[in-house]
Amino acid sequence: MINYYPLSRLTKGIKKRVEEVFHQRYWILAEIGKLSLYGKSGHCYLELVEKDANSNVTAFAKAFIWNKDFQRISQIFLQATGKELADGLKIVFECKVVFHEINGFSLTIHNVDPVYTLGEIAKEKHLAMQKLKNQGLWNKNKELGFPDLPQRLAVVSIETSKGYQDFISIIQATSTKFTIATSLYNAPMQGPKAVETIRWQLSKIKEKIYQYDLLLIIRGGGDDTSLNCFDDYNLAADIANFPIPVLTGIGHASNQTIADMVAYRQFVTPSDVAHFVVSSMQFIAQNLYSLQLNFKKNATTFLQTHKSEKDRMAQSLHAFTIRRIRTESQKIEQHWYLLNKHFIRNTHIEFKQLQDFYIKLDLLVAKELQVQNTNIQWLQQKIEWKVPAFWQHHHLDLDSLNQLIQSFDPSHVLQKGFTLIKKGNEIVTNPHSLAQGDTINIEWFNGSASAVIKEINK
Q: How many CB atoms lie within 10 A of CB 198?
């Protein structure tokens, strides 16, 4: 038959043995794997681990900090390190080994030494700084060009903080001179959620980066230990990589954070940041005003210097204009005189030729009339000899003949719209006698004109 013991006897034995062997308190180094707070009781539950170089867990223990000790320990730790007890922190703590028949093995923590954690924080800060330098991020934001007109500001801060209110008051005081637009992105400036929230807000600003000239990260109040979130590598890398200049005003110049060191420029307070932005705008405004004064001065000097030259040029231009008008007037008068003289001479010649033509025409017509008159008289006598019937039968032919005779009169011909075309003194009866470019004279009943042959249709 197998001999056995009740479980309670075993656990009580272990408890007794543990109390005998581990009756004092021990200082232990471990990492907080998980930390849980019980709201109603105020007790703190921890899962402690130890890891090797490959981050494999090599030891595990449960631990408790009772309410009466937790309030004291957490306050001391926060004041010393600027961090709250949280997952991932390595701590050195004073504890008592406990074995409970039901809950098993655990550690009761009575004190935590923040000195070790401070060393770890400093070590992590140094490693983060070295990593940023090795990656070429240390001066990346500083190498960006500062905007000529820093008017559009993205501000990461807490709206209710005094530092932010001071900042806004200074900015708004300049609104009568020039406009500076601010957009607030709320985020806690300390505590366990600070890094995560600030980084999230930076990503939101990046989505509309074209709307901003500067990024400002400002906080007011708090002690040095509350700045530890700004030593976070990931947050510092985001600031270093930010596409526009970043200005920080998170306080305490004696304790520079990594965020301060990688930013384009750091200031102690939000008010300092505001004064810098305003002074940048005032500098631009002063330069513009100086340029305006210089331009006005140079323009006045230029006008005064060139006034006499302008007057001289105006006088010269006036005299030149008068001389040119006189010269051209003389030329016009001369051309008019020659044209008039030529016209009168040609008109006289043409008129003389026309008179000669009329004389010849009159002689020709008179002679022809005399001949025709003789014929008429002979015909009249002949007709008178004929019987009256013959006269009555042919009186129409006689009228037609009379009209034909009258039509030979040149004046009658011209009155009917016919013209005489002359080349020189010769009458043109055949177009083959003309050539392109010849000058011809056209005579009507009551006038004449000259023309130049452009085209001949043969």
A: 24
User: Distance between CA atoms of 191 and 189, rounded to whole angstroms?
Assistant: 7
Q: Walk along the chain (458 residues) and give the pLDDT tens digit of each residue.
A: 788 888 888 888 888 888 888 889 999 999 999 999 887 888 999 999 998 888 899 999 999 999 989 999 988 888 887 778 888 888 999 999 999 888 889 999 999 988 888 788 778 888 899 999 999 999 999 999 999 888 899 999 999 888 899 999 999 887 667 788 999 999 998 877 899 999 999 999 999 999 999 999 998 765 555 677 898 999 999 999 999 999 999 876 566 889 999 999 999 899 999 999 988 887 676 666 566 667 766 666 666 666 666 677 777 777 888 888 888 778 877 877 777 777 677 777 777 777 777 788 778 877 877 887 787 778 777 766 765 666 566 666 667 777 766 666 666 666 777 788 888 888 888 887 788 888 888 888 788 888 888 888 76
Q: What is the DSSP string of 130-167?
A: HHHHHTT-TTTTTTSPPPSS--EEEEEE-TTSHHHHHH
Report the CATH architecture of 136-283: 3-Layer(aba) Sandwich (3.40)
Q: Alpha-carbon Rg of the chain, whole angstroms?
A: 62
> Sheet holding 420-423: strands in order across?
426-427, 420-423, 439-444, 447-452
CA 406 remoteness from chain centre: 93
Residues 6+ apart with CB under 8 A from 269: 163, 166, 220, 249, 251
**7-129 CATH, one of 2.40.50.140, 3.10.320.10, 2.60.40.1930, 3.30.1370.10:** 2.40.50.140
* 3-state secondary structure at position 231: helix
Q: Any alpha helices (H) in 243-269, and if so which ranges? A: 258-262
What residues contact 418, with CB distance under 8 A and at least 6 apart? none
Cα(199)–Cα(213) distance, integer angstroms: 19
* Residue ranges of domains in the chain: 7-129, 136-283
- What is the rounded end-to-end Cα distance, in angstroms, of the chain? 156
Q: Where are the alpha helices (DSSP H) in 386-431?
A: 388-407, 410-415
Residues 155, 156, 162, 163, CA torsion sign? negative
The answer to whether 7-129 and 136-283 have equal CATH topology is: no
DSSP state of 54: T
